[in-house]
Amino acid sequence: MEEFRTKLLEKFTTIKEAFETFMKDLPERQITKLELARSLARFGFEWQSKQVRDSIFDRLDFKSIGRVTMVGFYVLVEASAPVRSVEDLRRRWLASRFTMTQAIMTMVDHSTLALTHRFTLHEFGSRLQLVNVNDPEEHLALFNAVLHEKEKDSKEREKGEKGDFERIRRDKGDEKREKGHGPSITVGDLAAALAVVSPCLLLEDLRDKLQKRYNGDFKKAFSDMDLDRSGSVNEHEFTVKIMRNLHLTEHE
What we know:
Blueprint: H1 2-11, H2 15-24, H3 33-42, H4 50-60, H5 70-79, H6 86-95, H7 100-107, E1 118-119, H8 121-128, H9 136-160, H10 165-180, E2 185-186, H11 187-197, H12 201-214, H13 218-225, H14 235-245
Antiparallel strand pairs: 1-2
C-alpha cells in the first residue's frame, strides 16, 4: 500500500486530488474488485501482483460482501502514510476500523486503572503494536509528541494555578521521579493529546454505530434520517432516528 501511495504522488500533487479524479470515473456506490481494478488501470495504475490487489481489497471488504467504496480506499491509502504525529495516528486508527475509545482501551487491556500507568518508550511501543502501529520510528515520534504536549500542558497549569502550591509541588515531584527513571508517559496522556485533534469521542462512537447499521453507506443513513424527504435533516429528525435506531439517549 505504501508503494501504491508513492506511485500516486508521482502522478498527482496530493492523494486527495488523485481520488477526486478516480471518483469522477466511478459510480457513487460500492464497487466490485474488477470495477476497482479497471478504473485504476484507465489511469495507468497496475497492481504489483494479483495477491497484493486481493489483500488490499479484502482489508477494505472487511464484511466479505464483495464490494467496497472509493472513500474507504482513499482512507486506507492515506493511513498507509508513516505515523509521525497524533493526527496521523487518528487517521491510521480510523482506517483500521477503530474508534479512538476502542483503540485506547485496547492499549490498556480494557482497564481504566491502567490509563494512569507510566510507560517507557519501549513499553509504550509494545502497547501501540496492539493497535496497528508497528514501526519503532512511529513509536518514538508519538512518544515525543505526547511528551511535548504533556510538558506544555503542565506549564500552562502552573501558570494558571499560582496559588495552588500543593498542586505545583506535586507536579514537580512527578517530574523529578520521571527524570530519575527516564521519560515516561501514560496512555491517558495519549488520550488527552488525541482529544486536542479529534472531535468529541462520542462522534467516533456514532460513526462506528452508523458503519455497522448501514454497512458503511452514509448516504443511506442520511436518507433514513430525512423523515420528510426535504433533502436536509433537522435536529428533531436526527434525534428521533438516533434514539430509535442507535439507542443513544436524548442528551447524547
